[in-house]
């Protein structure tokens, strides 16, 4: 199996960490987003969506991180049940979180990240304060929902054990953290949950998966000197306007 990834990307990290944590072997195919490699002819043949992650299992190509995660669970019976429980209502809880996160925690965490990491390079200007404040407020609302609706007083989202829901949540949360927005400050419950998730994945593996994003400021420098950036500018300008 091949996984096309860039570990700056949250959905790529979820697939990478899951495969490694449960011992599914794969070939790591780097698609360097900072170099615009998603627009290469070669990658276009694999996925016309030009987004990562992509999984290639023989001739079967699959996009969308949550679809890939579920495919891996279902393909490998050795994967422990708690990751995506067979029991109807537990599985529904995982699916509930995965459905919610796209337009909420992912959207809001990504916005803060993109504003901090890319806005100044793309727009050649500082981020307007009201824009940053609004993005921060949205992210706070999502984090509040994660704590109050999804986690409540349980160790993990579905109860006593880690699942795909926790994994997908933590990789999104680490995105703003990578650009210096410490969302764990003043949130002891969320911090304790992060430590449990880290332990469940394996601390060394967790840090390996997050190494790039924790030095995301270098991404800005890399992109600044990159001619491919011109291709990305119109898309990002639209996002920021
Ligand atoms: N819903 C997709 C999102 C994939 C996605 O947005 N990937 C981003 C990186 S986080 C990407 O490849 N962006 C490249 C681009 O838009 O040019 C998933 O969960 O896999």
Give an overview of the whole structure:
The protein has 241 residues and is α+β, with helices and mostly antiparallel strands. The protein has 2 domains: 2-80, Glutaredoxin, CATH 3.40.30; 83-215, Glutathione S-transferase Yfyf (Class Pi), Chain A, domain 2. It is 60% helix and 7% strand. It contains 11 helices and 4 strands; from the N terminus they run E-H-E-H-E-E-H-H-H-H-H-H-H-H-H. It has a 4-stranded mixed beta sheet with strand order 2-1-3-4, with helices on one face. A hairpin with a 2-residue loop joins strand 3 (54-57) and strand 4. Helix 1 (10-22) runs parallel beside helix 3 (65-75). The longest helix is centred in the middle third of the chain and has 30 residues, at 88-117. It starts with a strand and ends with a helix. The model has no long low-confidence stretch (mean pLDDT 93). Glutathione binds next to helix 1 and helix 3. Residues 9-11, 33, 38, 50-53, 64-66 line the site of glutathione (GSH). This is glutathione transferase. Its EC number is 2.5.1.18. InterPro entries: Glutathione-S-Trfase_C-like (IPR010987), Glutathione-S-Trfase_C_sf (IPR036282), Glutathione_S-Trfase (IPR040079), Glutathione_S-Trfase_N (IPR004045), GST_C (IPR004046), GST_C_Theta (IPR040077), GST_N_Theta (IPR040075), GST_Theta (IPR051369). Homodimer. It comes from Zoarces viviparus.
């Amino acid at each position: 199996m091949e996984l096309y990834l860039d570990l700056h990307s949250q959905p790529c990290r979820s697939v990478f960490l899951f495969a490694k944590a449960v011992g599914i072997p794969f070939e790591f195919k780097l698609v360097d987003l900072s170099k615009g490699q998603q627009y290469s002819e070669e990658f276009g043949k694999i996925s016309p969506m030009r987004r990562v992650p992509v999984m290639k299992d023989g001739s079967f190509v699959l996009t969308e991180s949550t679809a890939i995660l579920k495919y891996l669970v279902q393909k490998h019976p050795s994967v422990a049940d708690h990751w995506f429980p067979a029991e109807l209502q537990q599985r529904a809880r995982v699916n509930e979180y995965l459905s919610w996160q796209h337009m909420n925690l992912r959207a809001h965490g990504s916005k803060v990240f993109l504003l901090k990491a890319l806005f100044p390079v793309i727009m050649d200007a500082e981020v307007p304060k009201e824009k940053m404040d609004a993005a921060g407020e949205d992210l706070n609302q999502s984090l509040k929902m994660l704590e109050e609706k999804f986690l409540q007083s349980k160790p993990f989202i579905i109860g006593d054990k880690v699942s795909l829901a926790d994994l997908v949540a933590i990789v999104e949360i680490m995105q703003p953290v990578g650009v210096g927005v410490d969302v764990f400050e003043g949130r002891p419950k969320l911090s304790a949950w992060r430590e449990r998730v880290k332990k469940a994945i394996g601390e060394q593996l967790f840090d390996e998966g997050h190494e790039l994003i924790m030095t995301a400021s270098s991404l800005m420098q890399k992109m600044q000197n990159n001619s491919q950036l011109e291709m990305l500018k119109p898309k990002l300008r639209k996002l920021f306007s």
